UniProtKB/TrEMBL annotation:
<dbReference type="Pfam" id="PF00041">
    <property type="entry name" value="fn3"/>
</dbReference>
<feature type="domain" description="Fibronectin type-III">
    <location>
        <begin position="46"/>
        <end position="131"/>
    </location>
</feature>
<dbReference type="InterPro" id="IPR013783">
    <property type="entry name" value="Ig-like_fold"/>
</dbReference>
<dbReference type="InterPro" id="IPR036116">
    <property type="entry name" value="FN3_sf"/>
</dbReference>
<dbReference type="InterPro" id="IPR003961">
    <property type="entry name" value="FN3_dom"/>
</dbReference>
<protein>
    <recommendedName>
        <fullName>Fibronectin type-III domain-containing protein</fullName>
    </recommendedName>
</protein>
Length: 131
C-alpha cells in the first residue's frame, strides 16, 4: 500500500514523502489541486504481466530477466524489488517509461527470490505488483 503525506491545505506544488509497504521511500514534487474539498492526485496504473526467467547461469550464480507491461503514460520508470528468501530487500531503479525488461545479475543459484515492481510517475508510484 502506498501512503502520501501532504502538508498544506492550498493548491500548489508540495514536496511529499511517499512510502510503500516494504519501507522504500520516494521524494517527489507533487502538484495538488483541491476541488470541493477533495484533493486530486493521480498515480499510474499497475504494471501487468510480471515474469522472471533465468537468462544465464553457471554453477554458483544465475542472471534473471524480469519483464512486464508498462501501464503507459505518465510512467517515467520503475523500481524492481527482489528479496532472497529470508534476506534483505534489494531494489533496482529503471529509468524511462518505455523500458519493459531488466536484468538481475549475479543472483545466488538455488535460492528462492521474491520479485515485485512499482511503476513511477512524476506524481506517485503505482501499487506494488508481485511477488
Amino acid at each position: 500500500d502506498n501512503r502520501l503525506r501532504v502538508r498544506g491545505r492550498r493548491n500548489g506544488t508540495y514536496n511529499c514523502t511517499i512510502s510503500n509497504n516494504i519501507r522504500d521511500y520516494f521524494q517527489h514534487g507533487v502538484f495538488v489541486t483541491q476541488v470541493n474539498g477533495t484533493l486530486n492526485i493521480s498515480a499510474p496504473g499497475e504494471p501487468t504481466g510480471l515474469t522472471a526467467v533465468i537468462s544465464e547461469s553457471n554453477s554458483t550464480h544465475v542472471n534473471i530477466t524480469v519483464s512486464w507491461e508498462s501501464p503507459g503514460d505518465p510512467v517515467t520508470g520503475c523500481v524492481i524489488y527482489y528479496q532472497p528468501k529470508g534476506g534483505p530487500v534489494i531494489s533496482d531503479r529503471v529509468s524511462g517509461g518505455e523500458t519493459d525488461t531488466h536484468s538481475l545479475d549475479g543472483l545466488q543459484r538455488g535460492v528462492t527470490y521474491y520479485i515485485s515492481i512499482v511503476a513511477l510517475s512524476p506524481h506517485l508510484p503505482s501499487p506494488l505488483v508481485g511477488p
